[in-house]
Design brief:
single chain; 141 residues; Nucleoside Triphosphate Pyrophosphohydrolase; seven-stranded mixed sheet; globular
Length: 141
């Protein structure tokens, strides 16, 4: 069965660009952008809001753009397909404490070079390139 979800690239332009990444420890170990599966009849926009507010813990953020990039992988017999979305948020707002979750044990607001080196999966690195192009348009960098 194919299941759909959203994955966010959250950034803060605080003099330099910083991106929110999570360190995954369940199923595999490495760094990734926050993601969630869409629930029942939920829209992608509603899933992005739920991910940012409930799972990441940042209620004050701004949706920038739905990106063209996607990421798909097998989870048992299911195929999970995640659509990337670009949002801006302040890295000065505390993020949910990931030390108490099973899937992730830490988060990091990292500068671009560090994020490119830390991300585990190629589709996320490609989505980051698309996000940078969009950020340049929005931020006039």
């Amino acid at each position: 069965m194919e299941r759909h979800g959203v994955q966010i690239i959250a950034y803060d332009n605080n003099g330099d660009l910083f991106f929110l990444i999570l360190r995954r420890v369940e199923g595999w170990k490495g760094w990734e952008f926050p993601k969630t599966l869409i629930q029942n009849d939920e829209s992608e926009d509603a899933a992005v809001e739920r991910l940012m507010k409930d799972q990441v813990g940042i209620s004050k953020h701004k949706f920038v753009k739905k990106l063209n990039s996607t990421q798909a992988f097998q989870d048992g017999q299911d195929t999970h397909v995640f659509q990337f979305h670009l949002v801006t948020a302040s890295m000065n707002i505390p993020v949910k404490n990931y030390a108490n979750t099973k899937k992730h044990d830490n988060y990091l607001w990292a500068m671009l070079d560090s994020v490119q080196n830390k991300l585990t999966w190629a589709p996320e690195k490609e989505a980051l390139k698309e996000a940078i192009d969009e950020i340049k348009k929005v931020e006039e960098l």
